[in-house]
Amino acid sequence: MPRTVHCVKMEQELEGLEKPPIPGELGQRIYESVSKQAWEAFLEHFKMIMNEYRINLMDPQSDEIFQQQVIEYFFRENG
Hints:
Elements: E1 4-6, E2 13-15, H1 24-33, H2 36-53, H3 61-75
């Protein structure tokens, strides 16, 4: 039986992720409060951002940009 979470984005009980999608405290926060469906939607959103701003994933700053986008998309915090 899949694990469920109360998704902060969809505001309902939905299937949760199988494991934290990124390491660290932010990954754990996502795991505990973001549904699989919302995470997949975020990844599509981030693809558009990558293309629009021509983000190079080989650049070390791309991790920081990714984390900032996660926080803004799900938790509405700045920085």
